[in-house]
Amino acid sequence: MKIAFFDTRPFEKDAFTRANAEFSHEINFLEPRLVESTAKVAQGYPCVCAFVNAKLNETTLKILKDGGINLLALRCAGFNQVDLAAAKRLGITVVRVPDYSPHAIAEHVVALIQTLNRKTHRAYNRVREGNFSLNGLMGFDLYGKTIGIIGTGKIGKILVQIMTGFGCEVLLNDLNPDEEFAAKSKARYVSLEEIYSKSDIISLHVPLTPATRHFIDATSLSKMKKGVMLINTGRGALIDTAALIEALKSGHVGNAGLDVYEEEEGIFFQDLSGQILSDDTLARLLTFPNVLITSHQGFLTNEAMTNIAETTLKNVSDFEQGLPLRNQVSE
Ligand code: NAI
């Protein structure tokens, strides 16, 4: 099938070209992000492939449909960037990659936690400049600390296993608790209030929906332990960033590890190093020594990229051949 592949990064082109040996789709790798102003480029294609920061609102979808698109193949797990009701109305089928490697993201959480905790980002720069002082680099043992994991789906569950290995006490919260998993993992489902009041570290693994937008706001932050470490690899808008900045300024939040940011569209994944950063909120976040931001790279492992490419191309083949769509998303 002919695929208009938007927002291409070199590592994606490599992975998809390798995986396509098995599927033989005709992929046109394009640089622009898929938004209203670029959607016309897909004219004449039956399938478009998009990533997390595409803007698939009704207008974009209508332009795609008018241009001949019947299939929207997301090469990511999250689908909050798509107006699913509009896609349904327009007759565009939407597929995604639900679980390419939950390990990649859960392990990135640990990278964020341990970098902030043991301050390896600062130690690295210091030592390279000939500064071998240890002042200001004090960390804490993870052993015996309490971590609250909010959202115990695929990623949250892997994180539970990893943190149990460190000897942490693991508290869980989910709309649909899996008590059997909790018992096996020696973890406990508790209320959000208990997570907030007892956790030294809190990690977010719920999807972004209207109900979870600003899940963490000034009120929930105020209920957390002073000095809490907050980790977000879910979606940026799970946190009210302005409230987080206030909590960082007051010292109430001790560390924040963010792989996602509310306004990351148009910023993350781009090399803006020669430009002035126009987002004042992100610029403020970057001034805190106890904030670590990565540019939505949780998924970025060889294993995850290979799975993403293979599943996306298989989704397209299944659609083309009229087979049942395991990975379809609908309202
Ligand atoms: P999943 O669908 O397996 O699990 C999500 C869990 O959240 C479910 O158990 C669900 O019951 C729970 N949940 C939903 N709303 C809730 C609420 N209001 N309160 C408590 N629990 C709630 O999803 P998975 O694969 O674990 O991924 C989680 C999120 O991680 C994705 O939605 C996506 O946004 C993000 N993600 C980030 C990546 C990155 O590179 N940083 C890569 C992949 C996913």
Number of DSSP helical runs: 12
The spatial strand order of the largest sheet comes to: 8-7-6-9-10-11-12
Give me the CATH fold name of the largest domain: Rossmann fold
Give the ligands present.
Answer: 1,4-dihydronicotinamide adenine dinucleotide
Could you describe the 3D structure shown?
The protein is α/β, with parallel strands linked by helices. The chain has two domains: 2-100 and 301-329, Rossmann fold (3-Layer(aba) Sandwich); 102-293, NAD(P)-binding Rossmann-like Domain (Rossmann fold), CATH 3.40.50. Helix content is 36%, strand content 15%. The chain has helices at 10-19, 58-66, 84-90, 102-118, 120-128, 154-165, 179-185, 192-198, 218-223, 241-249, 280-285, 302-320; strands spanning 2-5, 26-29, 47-50, 71-74, 93-95, 146-150, 169-173, 188-189, 201-204, 228-232, 253-258, 291-293. A seven-stranded parallel β-sheet has the order 8-7-6-9-10-11-12, with helices on both faces. A five-stranded parallel β-sheet has the order 2-1-3-4-5, sandwiched between helices. α4 (102-118) crosses α6. The protein binds 1,4-dihydronicotinamide adenine dinucleotide. The site of 1,4-dihydronicotinamide adenine dinucleotide has 30 residues, from α4 and α6. 1,4-dihydronicotinamide adenine dinucleotide is lined by residues 77-78, 99, 102, 105, 150-156, 173-176, 205-208, 211-212, 233-235, 259-260, 296, 298-299.
